Amino acid sequence: MRVFVAGASGAIGTRLVPQLIERGHEVIGTFRSPGNADRVRALGAKPVALDVLDAHAVRSAVLDTRPDAIVHQATALANTRVLRNLDRAFAPTNRLRTEGTDALLAAAREAGVRRFVAQSFASYRYAREGGPVKTEDDPLDPAPPAVARQTNAAMRYLDETVTGAGGIALRYGGFYAASDDGLAGPVRKRQFPVVGHGDGVSSFIHLDDAAAATVLALEHGGAGIYNIVDDEPAPMREWLPVLAQALGAKPPRHVPLWLGRLIAGGAMTMMAESRGASNAKAKRELGWTLRYPTWRQGFVAAYAPGARSAGREPRPARRAGHSPT
Ligand SMILES: NC(=O)c1ccc[n+]([C@@H]2O[C@H](COP(=O)([O-])OP(=O)(O)OC[C@H]3O[C@@H](n4cnc5c(N)ncnc54)[C@H](OP(=O)(O)O)[C@@H]3O)[C@@H](O)[C@H]2O)c1
Q: Distance from the CA of 65 to the center of ligand 1, in angstroms?
């Protein structure tokens, strides 16, 4: 297939492009920041400068390149921390998830593009009640904290618009293994504490595994939503000390929930009560196998001294065992 990857220069894009090429696909890779053309070219894709928020430019780029498939991985989360006002931090990304998705879908329709896959998110989105692990069919949080309402609405919009158009929304877990991982810095500096009893459950995914699932979804996934997360959704009190250790940091501090709320506001409530996600559907329907089935091994592979994979320049993936079924 000729695949148009919007956001090829990003955290997942740089892992995805080599895997697509390895599978025999031709890739057109878009970038936004001047200077990233060489990076995209070095990955093996044809670089195209594109602002996904410019609908005219999107239309031209798609009509010019005539892809068989589009993958929307454009986000703008660089330098984003878990901030008091999540919606403010995510505002540019929310536009990419709404207006950007609309522009790409309109262009896809006009150009007769058959397949469309877009980046969505799993953690902190499912209803904060009931069991700790949720499937794609479980309800989303009906009342996210005020600071995260626009962000949740943008992700819901993307999920509904993409699947409504016959495409696939991939609800990834928290990405790790990028050189600019938002979590690593604060954890190294002991600025990311276990809050309360550390009950909030998170789902993670190594970027290489996220890219492999994306290739499979593109090749033969049915329209709909897939959680792309690892096998071990886990409470903060379990994963945070393991991450700190992998990073060579001191163990995380513990703070009571009231203090966490004082520091991080409503976003902390969301983290403290969050549920994880199940990857059963993605494994069953995509034939996906994970190289890093849990963050326990993934964090070490990504961050331990001498680790080859991440926190450093992305390397081309050499995966076996993810051929189409
Ligand atoms: N699920 C998750 O947990 C999750 C999701 C996304 C990101 N992150 C993390 O957040 C960190 C930074 O993420 P990021 O989103 O800033 O960067 P990123 O993942 O490195 O890049 C996102 C991609 O979108 C492109 N882009 C940005 N604005 C665009 C626009 N208006 N039009 C077209 N393309 C545009 C970027 O292009 P240029 O690079 O050329 O500017 C880049 O190719 C990474 O560590 C990543 O792991 C986590």
A: 22
